[in-house]
Amino acid sequence: MKLIYTLLFLSITQLASAQSRHTISIQSGLFHSYFDKTPLFNFNYTSKDEGIFHGVHLGSVGVDYAYQINPKNSVAVEYTRLVNNYKEIWADHRMGDVCSRDLRTLYLKYQRGNRIFKKTSLIYGTGISFRYGETYLFTSSWQYTHSYNERNLALNAFVGLEHQLTNRLSAFYKFDLRSVLYYVNHKELDEYPQFHPNYPNRFDLSLKVGLSFHF
C-alpha cells in the first residue's frame, strides 16, 4: 500500500510540474476601430440600465482555446461576439453611416511568444477569420436603415504582451488588425451602391485584453 501511495504521489507531482499545453482565455475587445465615423466608446449616451459600465463599452467579448506545440509556438481557435448600437450616429448622420452591428467572428490563428522579461512575453502571430452577422446602415438623411448580411473572410495579424501572474494564470493585451480578403455577399452590396457610399470598410483594428488559464 505504501508503494502505491508513493507511485501516486510521484505521478501527481510529475503531472503538476509538466508543461501546460492547453490554454483557455476569456477576453474583451475594449474597442474596435473600423476607420469610419463609428465611435470607439459611448461616452455621451450612457444609462444606468445598461450594465456595470452604463453602456460606455462598445467592444466585444470572446473565448479562446490554444494548444501549445512547443514552448514558443501555439495554434488557437477563437470566437467573439460584438453587438453595438451607435447612438451618437443617430443624432447626426450621413447616408451610408453604420448605425449598429451584430457580428460573430470565428478565428483560426498561429501565435508565437518570446520572453522579454522574467514574467513578460512578447506575443505575435497571424491567422484567418470568418465573420457573419448583420450591419445596419442609414439609407437616407432621415432615419431609414437597411440591414446587410455580413459574410466575409479576412486575414488577421496581431501583436501584444502577456504577463504571467501565477503558474496557471496570465493576463494579456494585444492589438489585432483584421483585413477583409473576400466578401461572400458582395452581390447584395452592388445592388444599391447609392445607399452605402462609405461601406463596406475592409479594416477592423481592436485592442483585446483578457485572462488565460493554462493546464
Overview of this protein structure:
The protein is mainly beta and 215 residues long. It is 13% helix and 55% strand. The chain is built from 3 helices and 8 strands. It has helices at residues 2-17, 87-91, 186-191, and strands at residues 22-33, 60-68, 73-85, 98-115, 120-138, 145-164, 169-183, 203-214. The chain has an 8-stranded antiparallel beta barrel with strand order 1-2-3-4-5-6-7-8. The chain is globular. It starts with a helix and ends with a strand.
Question: Which helices and strands, and how do they pair?
Answer:
Blueprint: H1 2-17, E1 22-33, E2 60-68, E3 73-85, H2 87-91, E4 98-115, E5 120-138, E6 145-164, E7 169-183, H3 186-191, E8 203-214
Antiparallel strand pairs: 1-2, 1-8, 2-3, 3-4, 4-5, 5-6, 6-7, 7-8
Report how far apart the termini are.
Answer: 30 Å
Provide the gyration radius in Å: 22 Å
Biggest sheet strand line-up: 1-2-3-4-5-6-7-8
Shape: globular
Counting DSSP E segments of at least 2 residues, the number of strands comes to 8
* CATH architectural type: Beta Barrel
Class from secondary-structure proportions: mainly beta
Number of continuous helical runs:
3
Work out the oligomeric state of the chains in this entry: single chain
* Share of β-strand residues: over 45%
SSE order, as H and E? HEEEHEEEEHE
Task: Outline the low-pLDDT stretches.
Answer: 7-17
Mean pLDDT: 87
Proportion of residues in helical segments: 10-25%
Q: Look at the structure and give the CATH class.
A: Mainly Beta
Estimate nothing, just give the exact number of structural domains.
1
Describe the largest sheet: 8 strands, antiparallel, barrel
**CATH fold node name:** Porin
